[in-house]
Amino acid sequence: MYEMHVGIAVSGARPVWHVVAHGQRAALCGQPFGPEEDTQTDHHCLPCMTAFQRRMQVTEPA
């Protein structure tokens, strides 16, 4: 299971949504995060979203 958490972008520029595996303290992009921040954003972490997409791709049965 995966969750979405707001944290600072890898670039450190702004808050973004990160993808986090349940029970982990770091996002799929490797960015650590602290306690849940009360920050709103419409931006997403591209490295997290790319890693999540790769994990969700299902190989077609032959």
Explain the overall architecture.
The chain has 62 residues and is α+β, with helices and mostly antiparallel strands. The chain has a domain of 39 residues. Helix content is 18%, strand content 23%. Strands 1-2 form a two-stranded antiparallel ribbon. The longest helix has 11 residues. The protein starts with a strand and ends in a 6-residue tail after the last helix.
Structural class: alpha+beta
Work out the radius of gyration.
13 Å
Order of helices and strands: EEH
Shape: globular
User: Considering DSSP H and I runs of 4 or more, what fraction of the residues is helical?
Assistant: 10-25%
Strands of the widest sheet, in order across it, are: 1-2
Total beta strands: 2
How would you concisely characterize the structure shown here?
Helices cover 18% and strands 23% of the residues. The chain has 62 residues and is of the alpha+beta class.
